[in-house]
């Protein structure tokens, strides 16, 4: 019932309707016998704002109670708009959730805003128009329906019930004392993302913890990537220089392979090895064995040089999967002869 | 370490995955009879280097990472037999991020460093800065893994 009347009221709004008129309409709705002279009490915009720092939210603290007309009454001394200014209404409606937010400090207004979104969604447009009127700055509606960036537990349990937004933007709450421009909010989100990733990179790159500041760290990261790439080039040069091993014996390699290949029951086609770069094989766990055994079948001519490949296998092993790995490693190394 | 972070996933396979891929690629190179009589060492070096990068990209997850995908694409341009690059069924558009036009305004210190990073990391040209840094992290991990593998190989194969 209440909401029907509210909806009617709001439908009659024009954007160019002054705040004063709107407030008068609200007051009339709330108190049918309300005298208009007192409405003049609210005509001054400074009064409306109530002199809060966060002007955006402060006005909401004034206007919204009149729109939504919650019936619970609680003392909320922290609101900058003292109840005396709401003489006309006589019933400054507090939100039910105020008790829950008693412990939170400067975020009360935001929290009130948040929970109000729970109740009334269709009046967001009006809400935004009001605030725009009051503050003269444009803010997207979505920014108003925001999740708080810092949440207390009690509050977060409430916010989890916030109804699903129509869009799937990532919503950001403007922090207290910061600009609430939509661009600056997006900018801030982006900057925080970047700094979060930079912290992650800082752990990766050795020797980066001493350096503070984005520029230095980024330089360090770039240097590290360059040095890694140069290292790869250098090592590939070294590999190209290493001479192939001369001894080849077919029987020996088959004997070795048969002895260790008991779990390898799959006989892959040689094609699999040649096109061994097929993406599917990468992910399967047993593909390693498959590939190496297939490789062996395909290239019977190469030899396993056990003595020289032992250090190789040990260096690759590092205590993982000993026996199976050894045979594969040996086979592959022997066949390399790079 | 990476798996502790919920939002950024930079898990990299174990060393043996990289090792196997690299060894396969090297043996593949050998099949091509490169090492019997190459004209110059430079040719071999370049081939080995390319094989190292391609095998690293495959070991790191093939086409599921932006940088590895770009790397494989770059490698598969010339040769159609050696490097296979599977095309995705649905078309993936790699548009240059339009936000880069404005990126100079946003924290120019970060942005020209990001520009340099884009030149280094494959596929960086189409990424936003935050995505670029994710890819860089994964790329660094894979690079270091590949370096370890190659170092082991060189140590093992070099004459005592």
Which stretches of chain B are low in confidence, meaning pLDDT under 50 for 5 or more residues running? 1-5
Helical content of chain A (DSSP H or I, runs of 4+)? 55-70%
Strand content of chain B: under 5%
Give me the strand/helix succession of chain A.
Answer: HHHHHHHHHHHHHHHHH
Gyration radius from CA atoms of chain A, angstroms: 36 Å
Largest interface: pair, residues per side: A-B, 67 and 70 residues
Order of helices and strands of chain B: HHHHHH
Short description:
The complex is a heterodimer of chains A (338) and B (160). Chain A is mainly alpha-helical and 338 residues long.
Task: Looking at this protein, list some descriptive labels.
heterodimer; A: 338 residues; mainly alpha; elongated; B: 160 residues; 59% helix; disordered N terminus; bHLH_dom (chain A)
Detailed description of the structure:
The complex is a heterodimer of chains A (about 350) and B (about 160). Chain A is about 55% helix and about 0% strand. With about 350 residues, chain A is mostly helical. In chain A, helix 5 (about 55-70) packs across helix 7, helix 10 packs across helix 11 and helix 12 (about 250-260) runs antiparallel to helix 17. Residues about 35-165, about 245-310 and about 315-325 of chain A have low confidence and may be disordered. With about 160 residues, chain B is mainly alpha-helical. The longest helix of chain B is centred in the C-terminal third of the chain and has 29 residues, at about 130-155. Chain B is globular, with a radius of gyration of 18 Å. Chain B starts with 14 loop residues before the first helix and ends with a helix. Chains A and B meet through helix 10, helix 11, helix 15, helix 16 and helix 17 of A and helix 1, helix 2, helix 5 and helix 6 of B.
């Amino acid at each position: 019932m209440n909401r029907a009347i509210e909806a009617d009221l709001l439908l009659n709004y024009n954007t160019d309707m002054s705040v004063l008129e709107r407030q008068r309409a609200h007051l009339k709705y709330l108190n049918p016998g309300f005298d208009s002279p007192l409405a003049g009490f609210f005509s001054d915009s400074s009064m409306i704002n109530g002199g809060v720092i966060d002007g955006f939210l402060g006005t909401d603290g004034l206007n919204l109670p009149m729109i939504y007309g919650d019936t619970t009454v609680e003392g909320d001394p922290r609101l900058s708009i003292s109840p005396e200014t709401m003489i006309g209404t006589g019933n400054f409606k507090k939100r039910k959730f105020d008790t829950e937010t008693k412990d939170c400090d400067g975020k009360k207004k935001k929290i009130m805003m948040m929970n109000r979104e729970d109740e009334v969604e269709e009046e967001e447009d009006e809400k935004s128009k009001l605030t725009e009127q009051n503050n003269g700055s444009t803010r997207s509606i979505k920014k108003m329906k925001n999740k708080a960036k810092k949440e207390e537990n009690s509050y977060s349990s409430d916010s989890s019930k916030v109804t699903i937004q129509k869009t799937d933007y990532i919503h950001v709450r403007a922090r207290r004392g910061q600009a609430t421009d939509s661009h600056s909010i997006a900018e801030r989100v982006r900057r925080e993302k970047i700094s979060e990733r930079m912290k992650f990179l800082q752990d990766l790159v050795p020797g980066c913890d001493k350096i503070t500041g984005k520029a230095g760290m980024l330089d360090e990261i770039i240097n590290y990537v360059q040095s890694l790439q140069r290292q790869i080039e250098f090592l590939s040069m070294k590999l190209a220089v290493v001479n192939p091993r001369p001894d080849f014996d077919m029987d020996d390699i088959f004997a070795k392979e048969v002895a260790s290949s008991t779990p390898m029951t799959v006989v892959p086609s040689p094609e699999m090895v040649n096109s061994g770069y097929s993406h599917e094989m990468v992910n399967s766990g047993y593909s390693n064995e498959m590939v190496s055994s297939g490789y062996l079948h395909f290239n019977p001519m190469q030899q396993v040089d056990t003595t020289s490949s032992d250090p190789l296998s040990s260096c690759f092993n590092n205590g993982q999967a000993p026996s199976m790995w050894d045979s594969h490693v040996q086979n592959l190394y022997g066949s390399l002869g790079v | 370490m990476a798996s502790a972070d919920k939002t950024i996933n930079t898990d990299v396979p174990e060393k043996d995955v990289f090792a196997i891929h690299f060894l396969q690629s090297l043996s593949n190179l050998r099949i091509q009879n490169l090492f019997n009589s190459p004209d110059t060492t430079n040719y071999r070096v370049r081939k080995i280097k390319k094989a190292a990068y391609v095998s690293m990209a495959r070991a790191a997850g093939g086409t599921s990472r932006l940088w590895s995908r770009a790397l494989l694409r770059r490698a598969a341009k010339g040769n159609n037999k050696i490097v296979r690059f599977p095309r995705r069924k649905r078309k993936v558009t790699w548009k240059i991020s339009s936000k880069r036009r404005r990126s100079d305004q946003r924290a120019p210190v970060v942005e020209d460093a990001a520009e340099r990073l884009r030149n280094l990391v494959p596929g960086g040209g189409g990424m936003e800065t935050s995505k670029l840094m994710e890819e860089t992290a994964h790329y660094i991990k894979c690079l270091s893994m590949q370096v370890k593998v190659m170092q082991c190989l060189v140590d093992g194969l070099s004459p005592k």
